Amino acid sequence: MSTLNIVLLEPQIPQNTGNIARTCACTGARLHLIEPMGFRIDDKKLKHAGLDYWHFLDISYYRDWEDFLTKNEGEMFFFSTKAPNRYSDVTYPDNCYIVFGREDAGLPEELLKANKEHCVRIPMQSECRSLNLSNSVAIGVYEVLRQWDFPALKESGELTKYEW
Fold first, then answer.
1. Most buried residue among 31, 39, 93, 153 by CB atoms closer than 10 A?
2. Helix (H, G, I), strand (E, B) or coil at 85
3. Average of per-residue pLDDT values in the chain
4. What's the pTM value of the predicted model, to 2 decimals?
5. Beta strands in the chain (DSSP E)
6. Are 121 and 83 spatial neighbours (Cβ–Cβ below 8 Å)?
7. Positive or negative, the Cα torsion across 46, 141, 6, 104?
8. pLDDT single digits (tens) 121-145
């Protein structure tokens, strides 16, 4: 099975991280959380947003960006409102990492500058600052999975009162 990695660099809002954890659990993506975070991992708001999906989650924690880099390898794509490329115009390989920054600051510009060809943007109106982090992650995750033809995901549903 293909591996998709979601990386949150210094997330600040527990509800966003909880929602992202749920997205990862439902899609089979691995979640990587890099400190410092704006909450404790046992935060009630974090757990509530992820609901009862925590046992499906493959999650790793890192003390900082350098710690993450020493323990992981693969092609990385950096989602940013400052990026020059559209997220839908790149090809995402197996075992890639899609990286997102803090809700209040995004990714460090030094990181973006050093990785220009792998910096991607979700198009939006110029008057808007940014999308919500959990929404941005969901858009990125489903673009990668769409390109991979949704491996190992259930693609049809059933009615509860009727049959199709």
1. 31
2. strand
3. 92
4. 0.92
5. 4-9, 30-34, 58-62, 76-79, 85-86, 96-100, 119-121
6. yes
7. negative
8. 999 999 999 999 999 999 999 999 9
Q: How far is CA 27 from the centre of its chain?
A: 11
Residue identified by tokens 């400052």 is 82
Q: How far apart are CA 59 and CA 76, in angstroms?
A: 18
For residue 146, which amino acid is it? R
With 0-12 / 13-18 / 19 or more C-beta atoms within 10 angstroms meaning exposed / middle / buried, residue 141 is buried
Q: What is the DSSP letter of 63?
A: S
- The secondary structure element, H or E, covering residue 157 is none
CB burial of 53-65 (b: ≥16 within 10 Å; e: otherwise) equals: eeeebeeeebeeb
Cite the DSSP H helix spans in 84-132: 109-114
Best CA proximity match to 87, nearest among 128, 137, 133: 137
d(CA 21, CA 36): 17
Helix, strand, or coil (residue 67): helix
From 29, 20, 7, 4, select the one nearest 92 (Cα to Cα).
4
Question: Tell me, what's the pLDDT at 55?
Answer: 80
The pLDDT of residue 91 is 98
Which residue segments constitute the domains of the chain, with CATH numbers given?
Answer: 4-147 (3.40.1280.10)
